[in-house]
Write a structure and sequence with these properties.
Elements (H helix, E strand, L loop, with lengths): L1 H22 L5 E2 L4 E2 L8 H5 L2 H12 L4 H15 L13 H4 L11 H4 L11 E4 L3 E4 L6 E4 L10 H13 L4 E7 L3 H4 L11 H10 L5 E4 L1 H7 L15 H15 L9 E9 L3 H5 L2 H4 L3 E8 L5 E9 L5 E4 L3 E3 L22 E6 L7 E6 L16 E6 L7 H7 L4 E7 H5 L2 H11 L26 E2 L2 E4 L16
Amino acid sequence: MRHKIFLLLTGLAFFSLAAIFVFMPRSTFSTLEKRELATFPEFTWERLFDGSFTADVSTWFSDSEPYRDTFMEAHMNFKDMLAMHRGGEDAVAFHADAAGGADVVPGLDGEDAASMPDVALDDGTARIASKGIIVAGSGPDVRAMMVYGGSGSGKSSYAATANHLKKTFGSGVNVYCMIIPTSIEYYCPNKVKDRTRSQLATIKNIHSQLDPGVREVDVHTTLGIHAEEPIFLRTDHHWAPLGAYYAARKLAQVAGVHVPDLKEFDRKVVHGFVGTMYGYSKDINVKKAPEDFVYYTPRQAGYSTTYIIYNVDKDFRVTGKSAPHQGTYFKTFKDGSGAAYCTFMGTDMATVKVDTHVQNGRRVLIIKDSFGNAIPGYLFGSFEQVHVIDFRYFIGNLQAYVRDNKITDVVMAFNIFNAYSGSAAAKIEQMLRGVSASAPAKEAPEATHDPQPAKKEPAPQPASPTETPVEISAPQEQSQEEI
């Protein structure tokens, strides 16, 4: 009798799941993964005969399953219950799908590691999650960090490009090199430091190759001084706006312009923020540890923002652009929104110019990845104009842009992954030549409203302009790009 009941319950569960997968509406967007899900492919006889149509149908069926995020969250909860936890003060627990077989490199016990403060986590626990992500701590203090695999030697294309910018623009334009570390540099538990490499070593190597005319902006030291403060987000791969503030202050000091004081800004908060690292790590503990996304807006008005928005295709190649139009620099998000980092400009796919109340003849151009989004808003009291371009989407001629806009200061502001890889430098070189890797841009009808925040944030992914972490389970001598 019991086996019949078991078979009946098993059958009911199977047919219920089958009914859900076949008859319920398909999912179109994953909040967990912050991306559009696969759509049903277009049918052609050619694609049917070569097998690509049926392959795409299979991808669509598995990618767009009903209640996708609900099932994934249930899976993560179950996986967390099965995780192995080792005791002790510096306990380390490894997820089964990521710990095995990793090559271990020497730890960071030398001068570089000793020069930065260790910030204690509540119980010292840490997990190596998927895609080379360490999840440290427990409860409300969980922090997810991307493993870094770059080296501290070799020729740097980032430094070479900074030098080329200076030679191209000459003495009339100041060029600055800013390399932004990520959170693992300051918060990695000692127990798992052999899973990542020193970002300071990479930064020192790049700085050593800069020509005397290029100004070094050492934000690694600046952020280290403030590491006890919330300068990095715990649940997102980006830094926190407070970290960007200290970097902006350092830039202003080096540039010799007004250095902003935090008292000049209004503090605003998005509560219950869970960022990109939840989807990247697939660790339920990240979701259970939401944080406050705290950002700052200039108290003094008198600035206006002009946008050119780029249209992109499914492969993130630029296909067109809007005419210049006015918009707001800071976007507003509700509590619980996972897109709060889009507060700044609302999108990466834009060229932005901010006219400020300052009249000092200084006009800064910030060439950046998504980490750089949080910097410009602190400089509206420091420069007459603040220009922002993203290396992944800008399709103009950089020399012409600097000349036509009378730029006096050019800043390369990239996170350590892009600074170490050659992709960002190569694209800046293309911009200098007026060559774009994207499709030729065509003028689109003039926009009549502010750019809307994209549904998905750009995230690091090799050979793509979007951003997802590079998959590495141990430090490697390889490029980790486009974060």
